[in-house]
Amino acid sequence: GPGRATAVAHANIALIKYWGKADETLVLPRTSSLSLTLDGLATTTTVTFTGARSDSLSLDGEEQSGEALRRVSRFLDIVRGLAGIEQHAQVDSRNDGPTAAGLASSASGFAALALAASAAAGLELSSRELSRLARRGSGSACRSIFGGLVVWRAGHDDLSSFAEPLDCPIPLAVLVAQVNAGRKAISSREAMRRTVASSPLYEAWVQRSAVDLEDALSALRAGDLGAAGTIFEGNALGMHATMISARPAIVYWEPDTVRVLDAVHRARDAGLPVWATMDAGPNVKVVTSAELATEAAAWLSTRLENIPVSVNCCGPAARLISE
Ligand code: DP6
Fold first, then answer.
1. With a 6 A CB cut-off, is 14 part of the ligand 1 pocket?
2. Which pick of 1, 61, 243, 287 has the fewest CB atoms within 10 Å?
3. What's the rounded Cα separation, in Å, for the pair 141 and 39?
4. Atom from ligand 1 closest to the CA of residue 106
C-alpha cells in the first residue's frame, strides 16, 4: 500500500567543524568533523508517498514553496531512485527549536527526512547507508543519524563519506546561549561556498583541522577535557576567521555574541570547564562536562541578562516511531 513513516532526529553540534565542500552534488566535505548529538532540538517528520502530482512540504504547520520545497524534492528524487518508485510525497516536519538560526535544524531535518522517506519508500537501509543518504540533504545531517559522540570521516566519494558513533570517555554537555533566534541572512551552504572560493585563510584552516581532530580524539581518550575544549574552541573560532576573511566578508557575530564569548572566558578563569563553539549564526554554544553543566549555565545566566542559556545533554540516534 502507499507508504508512510514517521521519524525523529536530534540536532548535533560540531566540536570539530565541517566547513567547505569538495563536491557540491554529493556533499563531500573538505574536512572530517566531530559532533555531539543533543537530547533536545528534535525534528519529527512524517513522509507519505501519495498519488499527488507533486511533492509538498509543511514546516511547523506552514506550507512551503520555493527553495525549501525544491531542496526536499531533490532529496526525495534520490530516495525514489534508490527505491525504484515514482510517487510524489507529502512531507510534514516539525521542529522543537527555531529553524535556520544556526541551531542545526537542517541536520535534524534531513536526518529525520532520510529515515522517514526511506522507510516510507520500503527501503531497509543500514545506519551507514542512512548516514550517506542524509549527507546528500545536508552534510551535518549525516552525523544526526547517530547518538552521542559522532565522527564524520570526509572520505573521497559517495561510498566512503559517512558518520560513525564513537565511545565518549568524558560525559559532555552543550549549553546554548541564544543571542538571536531569527533566521540567518546567509545560508551555511552559500557561506561555505564563498569562504572556499575567496578566503586566503581557508586552506590553512583545512590543514589544521585534520590535526585538531586527531588531537581532540586523543585528549578525549585520555580524559583531558581541558585539552579537548581548547582545541574545540580554536577550531570553531578559526572557522569564523575564514568567514570573516572571505570577500565579501561573512560576519555572523553580533554584539551579544562577543559578550557571551567574554563571559565564557571569565567562567574559565573562575575555574569552570567551559569552551565556546559557534556555527553559521550569532548564537554561542558552550561545551562543558555533563557533571558541571547546570552550574556553568547558572554562572553564565546571571552574567548575561536577556540572553537565555539552555542545557543540552547527549542525545540518541535517529529513530522511527510507530503511528
Ligand atoms: C557551521 O550541514 O548546514 O554548522 O551541507 O550545505 O547543508 P550543507 O551545510 P550544513 O553546514 C553545517 C556547518 C556548521 C558546522 C558543522 O555542523 O559541522
1. yes
2. 1
3. 15
4. 3
C-alpha cell at 291: 557533571
DSSP one-letter code for 292? G
For residue 278, the ligand 1 atom closest to its alpha carbon is: 1
Grid cell locating 280: 553559521
Q: Please give the Cα distance from 48 to 70 (Å, whole number).
A: 17
SS3 43: strand
**Does 38 contact ligand 1 (Cβ within 6 A)?**
no
Q: Is the CB of 297 under 6 A from ligand 1?
A: no
Is the per-residue pLDDT at 113 higher than 50?
yes
pLDDT in tens, 202-231: 999 999 999 999 999 999 999 999 999 999
Q: Does ipTM surpass 0.90 in this model?
A: yes
Per-residue buried b or exposed e for 17-49, using 16+ beta carbons within 10 Å of the residue's own CB: bbbbbbeeeebbbbbbbbbbbbbbbbbbbbbbb
Task: Give the whole-angstrom CA distance, residue 308 versus residue 297.
Answer: 10
Q: What is the pLDDT of residue 100?
A: 45
Q: Percent of the chain beyond pLDDT 90? A: 92
